[in-house]
Amino acid sequence: MFRGGSVGGCKYSIIHWTSIDGYIANEDGILEWLGSTEVEGDSGYNSLLERIDTVVMRKGTYDVIRGFDMDYPYSGYENHVFSKSVSGSDEYASFIDEDVKTYIKKR
């Protein structure tokens, strides 16, 4: 799902991936289906990345991405990870313990 708009003068785009059953991963946390989609090209994903400067996600998603056997794909962006369990920052992201909408309104 892709949706865009603005909150507090800040433009945003939302990308939400799920499979037809409503989940992104199977019961074992495997994401194999992402590599086997029947869409040619990047489906507009790379052009979206060219228009943004900040990536926002929750900590569970961040942990999954960091667990992949690859370089962190969003290292060229400002990264904010919403977490109730971690504070501060690491080499890629700052961790935010705040409601997403409230945080975006302040930016």
Keywords:
single chain, 107 residues, alpha/beta, two-stranded antiparallel sheet, 3 helices, 21% helix, globular
SSE topology:
Blueprint: E1 2-7, E2 10-15, H1 45-50, E3 54-58, H2 59-67, E4 78-82, E5 88-89, E6 94-96, H3 100-106
Parallel strand pairs: 3-4, 4-6
Antiparallel strand pairs: 1-2, 5-6
Morphology: globular
Class inferred from helices and paired strands? alpha/beta
Sheet with the most strands?
4 strands, mixed
Distance linking N and C termini: 24 Å
User: Could you spell the SSE succession in H and E letters?
Assistant: EEHEHEEEH
Number of helical elements: 3
User: Could you list the spans in which at least 5 consecutive residues all have pLDDT below 50?
Assistant: none
Bin the strand percentage.
Answer: 25-35%
Mean pLDDT: 77
Numbering strands along the chain, what is their spatial order in the largest sheet?
A: 3-4-6-5
Let me know the number of strands: 6
CA radius of gyration: 15 Å
Helix content: 10-25%
Structure description:
Helices cover 21% and strands 25% of the residues. The strands form two sheets. Strands 3-4-6-5 form a four-stranded mixed sheet. It has a two-stranded antiparallel sheet with strand order 1-2. The protein is α/β, with parallel strands linked by helices. It contains three helices and six strands. Helix 2 links the parallel strand 3 and strand 4. The chain is globular and about 40 Å long.
